[in-house]
Write a structure and sequence with these properties.
Helix content is about 65%, strand content about 15%. The chain contains 21 helices and 14 strands. A hairpin with a 5-residue loop joins β6 and β7. α2 runs parallel beside α6 and α6 runs antiparallel to α11. The longest helix is centred in the middle third of the chain and has 53 residues. About 30% of the residues are buried.
């Protein structure tokens, strides 16, 4: 019960915000309409139960007039409401069914849109998406494949929650509607000298309890298996996407065999887990199918003694069997829905753990390095200690002041922590202590591997600003300045630019962004490493010419780049001990 209570609280926490949001009135109206239409379908089932009795009685008594009335028009019912014909009931039933499906889909897409927007907002706020990517949790609880959780899991959660919730409510109402009918139709039975009124109600209850208990025993392992299937499917799909995005590198390395082996290993996990699901589902289906088939004939067997004793007619027998089937089906909702419940449980757990991971990442936004604005235009590190996610200290108690107007290059051995220092200056590195002070003016950070978004080339160049905010000719001139004049005619084309552009072209394009942004401080983390020395020097000259008021801070290895700056800082770190920043002459590095 504790696990069920915890699970239902998770469902409530995921569902409640939408029905209390700015869309709450339309959400509740749609939900109420869906419930009302479903309940009307239950009411029509009650009508059909009584219609079934009169129809079979008409067959037994060879009453052709009643037969035709019950099919096409209506039949008078002395002392009560007339019984509508089958055609009228079915016509209304079809209309209700069409609109209950339509309104359900309408609510699904509105709810999914709201949840997707909220999850995206939370995931992207306070750079939670970046902090989650740095998780050291080997099991990646709540952090693996966020794309699948936002895309597939939210969709499945909304659809399954609505389906199960409305179906469960309909079964409750159906039980309440038919249990009284079954009680009256059952009559009394004497067992060991004891008279039991409404005995078929108790038979249905015992039948459902036994079926539910057995179903839970057989199907319980499906819940963790479904959870794992979601993950291994996403891992396999992610590996395929990675291959698609890096086809050139794989081709140049001749890594087809390695990639195939990696993909087949991941797919092997999919197949292995799927076999486990198949085996467990086979057992569950055998139980549920047998349970359902027995339920078809079981009420006739139980009610047969009264029929053969001439206590009820054929119509009464079929009505009793129908009412028993409705009561038993309502009580057996857990049995019939167990497979869906297992899938739903896995979806809820994935969304809940993802939501908690986001909350934890956002809660850590103010922990560690402290950012503040400077008033004298400088960039400063004040008693800054930087560490890796595993706790290894890269830099300890660093104090650095970078003056505006004087270009600086930061060098050091590979793995010494230069890129981590770059991320700390950008304010995105969460592991450390101390203060990072930057001017309130604009700063732009260009990593070694530029981000190329989806869209037209013009959008790619102006990112993250909307392309319409910058004149087309201004964008074209920026491309010419960085040595990409051949791309000007393709500005309005939407292509797979990460694969179309070479590494050097992508880095040139990033420099074009800098020319358009005109930042006061420009930080470059080996942002020209894919270019030859002559091209690097040319780009730095363009930066100085086009952005005379911009202070450039570069992280680099090559002496040629070092010689293009006025100051040099070396990150010295040896024997896995904390490093330190030491000022050295630029001339010594350029030799």
């Amino acid at each position: 019960m504790i696990a069920i209570g915890s699970f239902l609280r998770d469902v409530w926490r995921l569902s409640r915000p939408y029905f209390r949001s700015e869309e709450k009135w339309s959400a509740w109206l749609l939900l109420a309409s869906i419930i009302l239409l479903n309940l009307s379908m239950v009411g029509m089932n009650v009508v059909l139960n009584f219609w079934n009795r009169q129809f079979y009685n008409a067959l037994q008594t060879h009453d052709f007039t009643a037969f035709m009335q019950l099919l096409f028009t209506w039949r008078p019912n002395p002392g009560g409401l007339p019984m509508p014909g089958f055609c009228e009931v079915v016509a209304v039933y079809i209309l209700v069914f069409v609109y209950v499906t339509y309104l359900n889909q309408w609510l699904q897409i509105r709810w999914r849109r709201w949840m997707t927007t909220r999850f995206l907002d939370d995931w992207l706020s306070d750079q939670a998406y970046y902090r989650i990517s740095l998780s050291t949790d080997r099991q990646a609880v709540g952090t693996d494949n966020p794309d699948q959780r936002i895309s597939d899991d939210i969709r499945d959660f909304v659809g399954t929650t609505l389906s199960l919730g409305v179906d469960f409510l309909s079964n409750i109402v159906s039980f309440a509607s038919f249990v009284g009918i079954l009680w009256v139709l059952s009559g009394d039975i004497r067992v060991l000298g004891v008279t039991i009124p409404g005995y078929m109600v108790f038979v249905a209850l015992v039948y459902a309890v036994i079926g539910t208990w057995m179903t839970h025993l057989v199907g319980r392992p499906l819940i963790p298996l479904r959870f794992r299937q979601q993950r291994v499917e996403a891992d396999f799909r992610y590996a395929l996407v990675r291959l698609r995005e890096n086809v050139e590198g794989v081709a140049l390395y001749g890594g087809e065999g390695e990639e195939q082996g990696n993909l087949l290993d991941r797919f092997h996990n999919v197949v292995t887990n799927w076999w486990a699901i198949m085996t467990r589902t086979k057992r569950l289906n055998a139980l549920v199918s047998g349970y359902g088939q027995i339920a078809i004939i079981f009420p006739f067997v139980v009610a047969a003694p009264r029929y053969f004793a001439n206590q009820i007619q054929l119509g009464g027998l079929t009505q009793t069997a129908g009412a028993f089937g409705q009561v038993q089906s309502s009580l057996s909702w857990f049995v019939n829905a167990y497979g869906t419940l297992a899938q739903w449980s896995a979806i809820v757990e994935r969304l809940t753990t993802f939501q908690r991971a986001i909350a934890l990442a956002r809660a850590g936004a103010g922990v560690g390095l402290v950012e503040r604005a400077t008033t004298d235009g400088t960039v400063r590190l004040e008693d800054v200690t930087l560490a890796l996610p595993n706790g290894t200290t890269l830099v300890a108690h660093a104090n650095v002041v970078l003056q505006p107007g004087s270009s600086v290059v930061i060098t050091g051995r590979s793995g010494s922590g230069k890129s981590t220092l770059f991320r700390a200056l950008a304010g995105i590195w969460p592991f450390g202590q101390g203060q990072v002070a930057r001017p309130a003016e604009r700063c732009l950070f260009l990593p070694q591997r530029p981000y190329i978004p989806l869209g037209t080339l013009r959008h790619v160049v102006t990112y993250p600003h909307p392309p319409e905010d910058i004149a087309r000719e201004t964008v074209a001139q920026a491309l010419r300045d960085v040595g990409l004049p051949e791309l000007v005619d393709h500005l309005d084309q939407d292509r797979n630019w990460p694969q179309v552009l070479s590494g050097g072209e992508q880095q040139r394009l990033a420099m074009a962004r800098a020319l358009l942004a005109k930042p006061d401080w420009l930080f470059l983390d080996e942002a020209t490493a894919s270019l030859d020395p002559a091209a690097e020097a040319a780009l730095y000259r363009v930066l100085k010419e086009r952005l005379p008021g911009t202070t450039v801070v570069s992280i680099a290895h090559r002496p040629e780049v070092q010689g293009l700056h006025e100051q040099r800082l070396v990150l010295e770190r040896e024997d896995e001990r904390p490093g330190r920043l030491v000022a050295q002459p630029v001339e010594a590095a350029a030799q």
